[in-house]
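Supplementary Methods S3. Input chains for the assembly prediction are listed below.
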Amino acid sequence: DVKVTQSSRYLVKRTGEKVFLECVQDMDHENMFWYRQDPGLGLRLIYFSYDVKMKEKGDIPEGYSVSREKKERFSLILESASTNQTSMYLCASRDGTGDHNEQFFGPGTRLTVL
Amino acid sequence: AQKVTQAQTEISVVEKEDVTLDCVYETRDTTYYLFWYKQPPSGELVFLIRRNSFDEQNEISGRYSWNFQKSTSSFNFTITASQVVDSAVYFCALPLNTNSGGSNYKLTFGKGTLLTVNP
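Predicted structure tokens for the full assembly:
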């Protein structure tokens, strides 16, 4: 079974703090994703990584950066957290060798920025 | 443009009722896949099904069935004899090739339908 884990289920940070959200997958997947989920807005893609050190902006990258130094780990960084970044953050991974492969999701991190 | 529309924001049914969740999509691709995911209250999205645009046969898996109609760009999901455990948010999604090309696809999600099944 594919397992995608996220470092925290719940996180509370203060405005201006630097925040790291970590995601690890154990299936040697090439593709990894970070989404945020907000009521009424569904899932929105923040960043996507198609391989180690390779990344691509999603629909809402502003205020975020990412790091993928190892294939299994994809980090989302909030350089200076703001209250409008309070949200549920979901990580996913996918086998990038086939067009039709599904994404596997982690349990999510609910981030509150005070 | 690529778009997925789930017009039903919330649906509430009583246990054992049948319920259909609608999904309408737009794509310029001639061949494509469609996905459904379930997000229970625990929060983790779970993959339910993938369909190829070549295959318009209905798919049935236990109490779940999917009706794919290319002519109306719809991929609807029906739960027969609903149960309380079916309560979740359901998402329909359409892959989009990324700038990196190859087999690197990201998903365009609909906004989801919250299904509540009451005992």
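DSSP finds no helices and eleven strands in chain A. Residues 5 and 38 of chain A are 20 Å apart (CA to CA).
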